[in-house]
Amino acid sequence: MDAIETRTVEQNGQTYRITIYADEDAPNPLEDWSEMGAILSLSRRHANFDPDGIEEAIESNADAVPLSYYEHGSCLWCVAGELPAGAACPWDSVRFAGLWLPDADTLESARNYGGRTRFHFMRKRARQACGAYTLWCNGEVYGYEVERIVTCGECDGEKADPVDSCWGFFGLEVCRVEAAAAVAELRKAA
Fold it and tell me: Of the chain's two ends, which shows fewer C-beta atoms within 10 Å, N or C?
């Protein structure tokens, strides 16, 4: 497995190496997490292609949220009408590409909501699902490993002792922040 980035941090006489990798085993958040719902696509190229499910949901599910889709190198799922300015082009985007449907846990969380409050709640959850699913589809899930580097004064060699690792961070910057926090905790314990 190739590292995406490696950096060394020194403080108080301790040296740590933080290495970040792509998490190739990250599960699909729509299948593995609660309150993420489901995304149904109108594109035959997608694993979640389900035009019959979309037609049924349009007729019978008031909580269904229409989705837009953009693809140019990477993909982007978003709530319909919310494509970023650069992604709203006639060749690479679709205004109505599918639907987001709430799962049972989301419906339970919304049980006391009605009208506009429920409408906005469902759109917010659809945005969250689209964000996580887009990162997962694009392979933007990461993990880190932290090693303590010990230098041998006699031989000028170094030894790397693994001290922490964690995987499943959606977004590179999130992984960087969590790795730095882990090193800060290790420094406190040292």
Answer: N
CA atoms of 181 and 164, how far apart (whole Å): 11
Cα distance between residue 123 and residue 79, in whole Å? 7
CA atoms of 189 and 14, how far apart (whole Å): 11
Give me the phi and psi of 19, to 5 degrees please.
Answer: -120, 130
Q: Is the dihedral angle over the CA atoms 41, 45, 48, 53 positive or is it negative?
A: positive
**Tens-digit pLDDT profile for residues 140-164:** 999 999 999 987 766 667 888 899 9
DSSP code, position 186: H
Cα–Cα distances (Å) from 54 to 41, 110, 175, in that order, read 8, 21, 35
Task: Find out whether 29 and 170 touch, Cβ atoms under 8 Å.
Answer: yes
Q: How far apart are CA 184 and CA 70, in angstroms?
A: 39
Q: How many CA atoms lie within 13 A of 67 on its CB side?
A: 32
Please give the single-letter amino acid code of residue 10: E
